[in-house]
């Protein structure tokens, strides 16, 4: 046990799933954000639960050789990139250990199936989309990110995981608001109905360099909006679309339902490999374009298609992976719960001349079962669920379908391991597990897994 509000000097013996350092007093674990394995640190106990505690890092007495000084000047305050004090190799080692640990402890698999994570050559400025909250903080306009576990906005001039365009759009928005006395919709973290601007969103096509800027306000009328448009249009290279979105609700959801294109096109385009995609303000599109190609090509390699197969792509979003599968298979069925995503998927397939893809709106668990009931026999099933993993009904349907191969793409190693255990019990053998680092400087890790029917 530890005692709250007391200081301790501790040795860090491991890294938790969120990248926190772990120290132990007897067998009682204490989680310390910002500490690394092998370090001796001074902490303040901030929480003492029955089975574990939390400490605030006060001082690093003996630093690890893996520690780097983050390039980002906001690293200590920003809630965004929580492991940037690890050098990049150490970040990949940490993610490798994390995936192995889940596979061993949760799935009961041997860890030699886990491959070393594929990292980025240049792990900076990798994102193609950002949503920056705008607020009044201590009498000044702040545009940036939320501080760790809070709704306080930190004003950020430079975010090293975003494209430089995002820094520029934020600066233009800030000076436009200051010049015309346009107020943010929050003041010191509290919703302010007298204010106006809530968020600014920026998307950029990685291969096309086309830029979309979305101004989110809580009211329809925006004074001096033409000056905003002119400043963006004249100063942002590649600007193709400026959209005004109205969201009057005081919730965490960024975009409202009312969109107006106030300059240029309604959508921008981008390519993944040679496939072209239209991107609207609401489209789901992987945020790290360099690693998306790595992820999808790994999935495709694991699917090992010859051109004769029938393939199911569950959780297909806007049909990105579906098109790659379609190009290599006889027939592919994409299933997705969001109707708008399916509309995009159908458009994307047409635009890219993929004629053997069929898309179904509904839950993967229901629609896949329906396809099986209609007598469709899949050779390969690809799943790419959200963090909570697959519904048990879907795993049962996969077992009933008896495909030769299953490819599981996952953004959460814990739920992945849980589902792999179930699939193993239902007659599949897990092959390679390939982590891909889609989110450098954060603890997140994506995995692609190949399974074969026993
Ligand atoms: N494969 C896509 C999208 C993956 S994100 C890509 O790589 O771009 C996961 C998707 O699953 C989201 O589009 C989400 O809307 C969808 N989804 C969530 N729950 C679902 C369910 N029960 N059935 C089908 N789709 C679901």
How many distinct helices? Answer: 9
Distance between the termini: 47 Å
**The CATH homology group name of the largest domain:** Vaccinia Virus protein VP39
Give the CATH class of the largest domain.
Answer: Alpha Beta
Describe this structure in words.
This protein is an alpha+beta fold. The chain has three domains: 7-62, Nucleic acid-binding proteins (OB fold (Dihydrolipoamide Acetyltransferase, E2P), Beta Barrel), CATH 2.40.50.140; 103-120 and 288-453, 3-Layer(aba) Sandwich (Rossmann fold), CATH 3.40.50.150; 129-272, Beta Barrel (OB fold (Dihydrolipoamide Acetyltransferase, E2P)). 25% of the residues lie in helices and 32% in strands. The chain has nine helices and 23 strands. A seven-stranded mixed sheet has the order 8-7-6-11-12-13-14, covered by helices on one side. It has a seven-stranded mixed sheet with strand order 19-18-17-20-21-23-22, with helices on both faces. Strands 1-2-3-5-4 form a five-stranded mixed β-barrel. Helix 3 links the parallel strand 12 (211-217) and strand 13. Helix 2 runs antiparallel to helix 3 and helix 7 packs parallel to helix 8 (392-401). The longest helix is centred in the N-terminal third of the chain and has 18 residues, at 88-105. The radius of gyration is 24 Å and the shape is globular. The protein starts with 6 loop residues before the first strand and ends with a strand. Bound molecules: S-adenosyl-L-homocysteine. S-adenosyl-L-homocysteine binds next to helix 5 and strand 18.
């Amino acid at each position: 046990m530890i005692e709250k509000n007391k200081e301790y000097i501790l040795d860090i013996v491991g890294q938790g799933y969120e990248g926190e350092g772990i120290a132990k007093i007897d067998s009682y674990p204490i989680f310390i954000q910002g500490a690394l394995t092998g370090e001796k640190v001074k902490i303040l106990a901030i929480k003492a639960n029955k089975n574990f505690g939390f400490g605030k890092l006060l001082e690093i007495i003996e630093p690890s050789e893996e520690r780097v000084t983050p390039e980002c000047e906001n690293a200590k305050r920003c809630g965004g990139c929580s492991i940037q004090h690890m050098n990049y190799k150490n970040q990949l080692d940490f993610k490798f250990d994390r995936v192995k640990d889940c596979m061993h402890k949760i799935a009961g698999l041997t860890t030699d199936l886990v491959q070393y994570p594929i990292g980025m050559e240049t792990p900076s400025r990798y994102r193609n989309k950002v949503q920056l909250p705008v607020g009044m903080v201590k009498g000044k306009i702040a545009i940036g990110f939320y501080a760790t576990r809070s709704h306080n906005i930190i004003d950020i001039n430079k975010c090293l995981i975003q494209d430089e365009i995002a820094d520029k759009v934020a600066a233009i928005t800030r000076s436009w608001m200051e010049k015309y006395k346009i107020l943010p919709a929050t003041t010191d973290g509290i919703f302010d109905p007298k204010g106006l601007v809530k968020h600014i969103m920026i998307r950029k096509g990685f291969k096309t360099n086309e830029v979309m800027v979305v101004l989110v306000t809580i009211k329809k009328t925006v004074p001096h909006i033409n000056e905003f448009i002119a400043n963006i249009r004249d100063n942002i290279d590649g600007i193709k679309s400026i959209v005004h979105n109205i969201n009057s609700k005081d919730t965490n959801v960024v975009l409202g339902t009312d969109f107006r294109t106030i300059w240029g096109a309604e959508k921008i385009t981008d390519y993944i490999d040679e496939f072209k995609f239209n991107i609207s303000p609401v489209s789901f599109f992987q945020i790290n374009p360099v690693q998306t190609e790595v992820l999808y090509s790994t999935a495709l390699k694991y699917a090992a298609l010859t051109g004769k197969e029938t393939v199911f792509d569950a959780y297909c979003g806007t049909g990105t992976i579906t098109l790659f599968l379609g190009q290599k298979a006889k027939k592919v069925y994409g299933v997705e719960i969001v109707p708008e995503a399916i509309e995009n998927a159908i458009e994307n397939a047409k635009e890219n001349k993929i004629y053997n893809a069929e898309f179904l709106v509904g839950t993967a668990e229901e629609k896949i079962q329906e396809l099986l009931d209609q007598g469709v026999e899949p050779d390969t099933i690809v799943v790419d669920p959200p963090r909570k993993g697959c519904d048990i009904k879907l795993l049962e349907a996969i077992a009933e379908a008896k495909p030769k191969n299953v490819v599981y793409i996952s953004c959460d190693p814990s739920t992945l391991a849980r589902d792999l255990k179930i699939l193993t019990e239902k007659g599949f053998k897990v092959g390679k597990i390939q982590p891909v680092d889609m989110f450098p400087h954060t603890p997140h890790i994506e995995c692609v897994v190949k399974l074969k029917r026993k």
